[in-house]
Design brief:
The protein has eight helices and 21 strands. A six-stranded mixed β-sheet has the order 6-7-8-3-9-10, sandwiched between helices. Strands 11-12-13-21-14 form a five-stranded mixed β-barrel. A four-stranded antiparallel β-sheet has the order 2-1-4-5, with helices on one face. The C terminus is likely disordered. The radius of gyration is 25 Å and the shape is globular. It has about 350 residues and is of the alpha+beta class. The two termini are about 45 Å apart.
């Protein structure tokens, strides 16, 4: 039987006068890599702690594989947790830290020493630290210490691994490497991962499902591509990825598509619920736009800033359409020449029918 399903029903939490979680309903499929994504203070860590049993909800229930565990203490839940700060025991070796969870609980339930050693060796191999078992935490890099924390959390083979911003204290290159390691470990074990982060790149790159949170509520739960390409709310559209917003009007709705008019021009866009005939905001992603000579098929503008990102330039372009400034990503090529204040014959071209823009009711 596949285990690791988590069901959250009507969970709410207040701290004094502060509402941390408005009643939330959420289904996390077994074996999935699920990320809770949102800005600081949105309630994602509070929700994770309630799932872990470190906080008690004011209302609602938490179920694991169909069993209500709301009143169970953390040690009686089939979950383990990895924190932002590794919390390794400084007086123990790496191997002893990893195997610590096998030495707790009633003696009659503990594994024999030989099996414990084999399990520790298995976990060290899984996280790529086979040769470091005899070291102490003070002798490890930040990335190595976090790998130890992951191995320690997995040693008891939990059905769900909870990760509370485990990469945020690491530098960029180490974060990128550990993201790939977490994805590999998840694929090897099939354990349900619930990952909390404020970093959208982390959430989008390794998750199968993303729950976007804002002010104690879930704005959207979907796969990463859907969250990025078809945000369900204006907050999600603004929080996920870079983009520019235009004021527009919906002229007709056809299922999940809408014909939208912006600056006197009409084009097709994905529709997030804007009503026919209503005002709307249209999201344009920078990678879906390109520079072109100004003509009747382009939206003319002037380059205000140009930032270099290695494989592409990002241009902030002022247009005559309201207060909006348009972000455009232009691939870097030897012949590319971009200057601030590029004259008005430079324009922003976009496909009238195929632009994957998103709309949201104003």
């Amino acid at each position: 039987m596949v285990t690791g399903a988590v069901s959250i029903a009507g969970v709410g939490k207040r701290f004094g006068d502060v509402t941390a979680l408005r009643p939330i309903d959420l289904e996390i499929p077994p074996g999935s890599f699920f990320s809770l994504l949102g800005p600081s203070g949105c309630g994602k860590t509070t929700l994770l702690k309630i799932v872990a049993g470190l906080e008690v909800p004011d209302v609602g229930t938490v179920n694991a594989d169909g069993v209500d565990i709301t009143s169970r203490p953390p040690e009686r839940r089939p979950f383990n947790m990895v924190f932002q700060h590794y919390a390794l025991f400084p007086h123990m070796t790496v191997a002893d830290n990893v195997g610590f969870g096998l030495t707790t609980g009633p003696k009659r339930e503990r594994l024999p020493q030989r099996e414990r050693a084999a399990r520790v060796a298995e976990m060290l191999e899984l996280v790529g630290l086979t040769r470091l078992g005899a070291r102490y935490p003070s002798e490890l890099s930040g990335g190595q210490a976090q790998r130890v924390a992951v191995a320690r959390a997995l040693i008891n083979r939990p059905s769900v691994l909870l990760l509370d911003e485990p990469l945020s204290a690491l530098d960029r290159n180490v974060r990128f490497a550990l993201r790939e390691e977490l994805l590999r470990i998840h694929q090897e074990l099939g354990t349900t991962f619930v990952f909390v982060t404020h970093d959208q790149d982390e959430a989008l790159s390794i998750s199968q499902l993303v729950g976007v949170m804002n002010e104690g509520r879930l704005e959207q739960v979907a796969d990463p591509q859907t969250v990025y390409r078809s945000p369900a709310t204006l907050f999600t559209a603004r929080f996920i990825g870079a983009g520019s917003f235009f004021e527009g009007a919906v002229r007709s709705v056809h299922g999940d598509r809408a014909e939208v008019e912006v600056a006197g021009r009409r084009f097709s866009a994905s529709n997030a619920g804007a009503p026919d005939g209503g005002a709307t905001q249209v999201l344009l992603r920078p990678e879906e736009l390109e520079l072109a000579p100004s003509d009747a098929g382009t939206l003319a503008g002037t380059v205000e800033t140009c930032s270099f990102f290695g494989s592409y330039f990002e241009l902030l372009t002022r247009t005559p359409v309201g207060p909006c400034r348009l972000r455009v990503r232009e691939p870097v090529a030897p012949e590319t020449e971009i200057a601030i204040g590029w004259p008005d014959q430079a324009g922003i071209a976009y496909a009238v029918e195929d632009l994957p823009a998103s709309t949201q009711s104003a």
